[in-house]
Amino acid sequence: MAGTSDLTRLTIADAGAGLAAGDFSARELTQAHLDAMAAARDLNAYSAETPDQALAMADASDARRGQGDAQGPLDGIPLAIKDLFCTEGVLSTAGSHILDGFKPTYESTVTQQLWDAGAVMLGKTNMDEFAMGSANVTSHYGPCLNPWKAASGDAAGKDLVPGGSSGGSASAVAANIALGATGTDTGGSIRQPGSFCGIVGMKPTYGRCSRWGIIAFASSLDQAGPLTRTVRDGALMLGAMAGYDPKDSTSVDIPVPDYAAALTGDIRGLRVGIPAEYRMDGTPPEIEALWQQGRDWLRDAGAEIVDISLPHTKYALPTYYIVAPAEASSNLARYDGVRYGLRVEGEDIIDTYEKTRAAGFGPEVKRRIMIGTYVLSAGYYDAYYLQAQRVRTRIADDFRAAWDKCDVILTPTAPSAAFAIGEKMDDPIAMYLNDIFTVPASMAGLPAISVPAGLSADGLPLGLHLIGPAFAEETMLRAADVLETAAEFEGRQ
Ligand code: GLN
């Protein structure tokens, strides 16, 4: 049998093959991860560990396999779950004080589908409060650390952010304390932490995965997706996570393809669009250079590179910061100290609401609620929210027009590598700019993926970002796989 540290370094695909071949058991694979988690607590990647459940699920997987009933590529695979997913009987807090002690009586559809596929839950991962953030610094559980360290430059030796909001999930996968993890992406929260931690992060098409049982941030944007060490692993996880759910009226009733089968390595003739508007002032030259390198890799593999225009790109971020807070202010109205989590007693019911919300929400969440309430208020609704919805349609139209010319779009994932904890904390706009390249696809509901593609001059991971047409995950994954092969990115050793 392989040593336990070897077991945590496997890909999901290889671990699945090892389980099938009887090289090790699901219990051994799970125990290796539980041991590694205990040794890596300083990362603060998990907000709750569930070792008892994990071992029980692993034993059940071994028993199934023993009877010839293994469920498929995820059976016996230990995964981490972002704390935004409700998990039955297991603390689910969205990284917020206001959900203290909340143990749902139900399981989110996506996690249920993973358990039905035989996967093992290691625990819940740290995240920005209610998924609002780009650095995992707004969590009630404190910041999560990136397992990478800069070799040189201003951030050398400092603790770095893992990106956000799915920072704990990204950190756990990069640090080999989960073989894969779930994340959610509203404006970039899977892809940007994927880029910062040197792993693959995929946001599927809006409607591809059920949102049922995922604590809502901005309902018209939120989408679940996988964080993994390889594109193939992302394809395997998405296969189990995706699918129509009658409990989510925005989930789409079309068959779930075999995503891993789409990874043929053949992208000859694929048209790759390069949007002029993503060449932004202030983008570091090393990120421009990596983008150019990505173009060359795809062209060398037989793709055709075409220049395209997405003219409304510059409005995506400002529009997002109207639509997302508007929806959040409505979704978060339910936290009142009566039904869930924290309750701070007041003199009467209104006072209880006020005291509970004042104590329960952190500053970033309060900022979003205030912005959202403002843009939805009578007199401002037309000027802000309605206008933002109109611009959102234009952004989606830009992409629709682009698909006449190209099959996928290539851009950088983020405008920087991971930065030090504490940076950008007093400047919300600087923090919001992290999502400049990821937000447009979110506004248009399109699938997008970040693939680790290189290192910054300071030795930190940088991702490249592919966007596809709605429900064209297979094409996007095929291109991502080619990019991954060309980049030969070495994960953390
Ligand atoms: N960073 C963005 C925000 O703070 C996106 C977050 C997300 O995708 N959940 O809203």
Characterize the structure shown.
- With 493 residues, the chain is α/β, with parallel strands linked by helices.
- The chain has one domain: Alpha-Beta Complex (Amidase signature (AS) enzymes).
- Helix content is 38%, strand content 12%.
- The chain contains 16 helices and 11 strands.
- The chain has an 11-stranded mixed sheet, sandwiched between helices.
- Helix 5 links the parallel strand 2 and strand 3.
- It starts with a helix and ends in a 6-residue tail after the last helix.
- The site of glutamine (GLN) has 13 residues, from loops.
The portion of residues assigned to helices is: 25-40%
Strand and helix order: HHHEHEHEHEHEEHEHEHHHHEHHEEH
Main sheet characteristics: 11 strands, mixed
The Cα radius of gyration reads 21 Å
CATH class category name: Alpha Beta
Q: Strand order, biggest sheet?
A: 1-3-2-4-6-5-10-11-9-7-8
Q: What's the total count of β strands?
A: 11
Portion of residues in beta strands equals 5-15%
Secondary structure class reads: alpha/beta
CATH topology: Amidase signature (AS) enzymes
Mean pLDDT: 96
Q: DSSP helix count?
A: 16
Question: How many discrete structural domains?
Answer: 1
Distance between the termini: 20 Å
CATH superfamily: Amidase signature (AS) domain
What is the approximate shape?
Answer: globular
- What ions, cofactors and ligands are bound? glutamine
Could you say what the CATH architecture is?
A: Alpha-Beta Complex
Unreliable runs: none
